[in-house]
Amino acid sequence: MRLFGWLRRVPLSLLIIVVGVLGFVALLNLKPRPEPRPEPEPPRPVVEVERVKLEDRALTVEAQGTVTPRRDIQLVSQVGGQIIESAPQFVAGGRFQKGDWLVRLDPRDYRNALAQAEAQLREAERLLAEERGRARQAEREWRDLGNAEANALFLRQPQIAAAEAAVASARAARDQTQLELERTEVRAPFDGRIRQTMADQGQFIGPGTPVADVYEDTLAQVRLPLTDAQAALLNLPFGDELTQAAQPSVTLHGRALGEDHQWSARLVRTEASLDPQSRMLYAVAELPEPFNTERHGAPLLMGSFVTAEIEGKPLTDIVSLPITAVFQRDRLYSVSEDGEVVEKQVRVLTIEGERIWVKGDLRDGEPVITDRQGYVSPGVSVRIAGEEESTPEPAEDEDEPAEPEAEGGV
């Protein structure tokens, strides 16, 4: 009764508003609420890739070095004397053959010494002949006395031995003097060229005095520094186990006579030890007849700086990729079949310009990311550039009212 009394005091208009609000709220609560839609997935990062193509081939190793002769020595005089004559080719750049004389010293003192030595030899031979005659005479006298055997002293055997030693000594002195006379002509020890002359006609030189710097010109060589990774790509000759046909071929590139040229050489040996400063292994390439223009097209001068391309040994299942595909020295990202980033470790073989050769756990056709490695990480889902993004179709809202059908009738 009290409630109805209170309601009678409430204005009718306010009561109508309250009832209307309560009815509207009730209708909202009775209407089924739509299921919340899932948040749309963010777009996947787009990456550039290159498909793996496994290859079987030999790689080329590049190194640089300076051309040097196989033999480069100081030519010295073995005897002393005054230079009385020099050969026409005894000039810087002059070419000589093995055995050619280059410098002649005054031989007169040595000829006189040779004459004295020969006289002493003849005197020693005369004394030996006399002692042998006395020994034969003593032997006959001993037999006349009726004795069977004579002792060595009676037969003058010690005197004969001394005379024979004197002859041998005199002959050795004669041979030595003859040798010194021959050495008054300083001769070339091999085929080559003169780098620098250090003595001239009229000059007096002593034994051991250098007369010229000479080098062999029939064979040039280049010392090529190799890293451990480069050496692993080559069939290097450690010793004599490689035949000439198996020695790696080397193409030398350089400039000669104002133009670019190339020469074909062979890798013949290694120095079989690491350089203590650079920790490099030095391999030696040889080029026969470096001055033969008919054979090589241009001379390869000593001291030239050249770039060498060394033929590598055959390798299997290696891959060429853009150099940007590899990061942190030996890592790359590939894309799995599910579109996720996978990190792989590879072995870097060599770099050729903007390409890098690697070997590792890679399959033919596998996509390798070539850029933006810093924007993705292993496990991240990515989209390969050029492929369409797959987006799920939106579900139809069941709570939306259906379109009213048009009423028929004419």
UniProtKB/TrEMBL annotation:
**Organism domain of life:** Bacteria
Membrane is among the record's keywords: yes
Give the span(s) annotated as Disordered. 382-410
- Any coiled-coil regions, as ranges: 107-187
Which residue range or ranges hold the Multidrug resistance protein MdtA-like barrel-sandwich hybrid domain? 73-210
Transmembrane parts of this sequence: 12-30
Q: Name one Pfam family in it.
A: BSH_RND
In alphabetical order, the GO MF annotations are: efflux transmembrane transporter activity
InterPro entries xrefs: MdtA-like_BSH, RND_pump_MFP
Give the UniProt keywords, A-Z.
Coiled coil, Membrane, Transmembrane, Transmembrane helix
Could you name the Gene Ontology cellular component terms for this entry?
Answer: efflux pump complex
Compositional bias ranges of the Acidic residues kind: 387-410
Note the PANTHER family from the entry.
Answer: MULTIDRUG RESISTANCE PROTEIN MDTA
Q: Which family does it belong to?
A: Belongs to the membrane fusion protein (MFP) (TC 8.A.1) family.
Q: What is the name attached to this protein's record?
A: RND family efflux transporter MFP subunit
User: Which organism is this protein's natural source?
Assistant: Marinimicrobium koreense
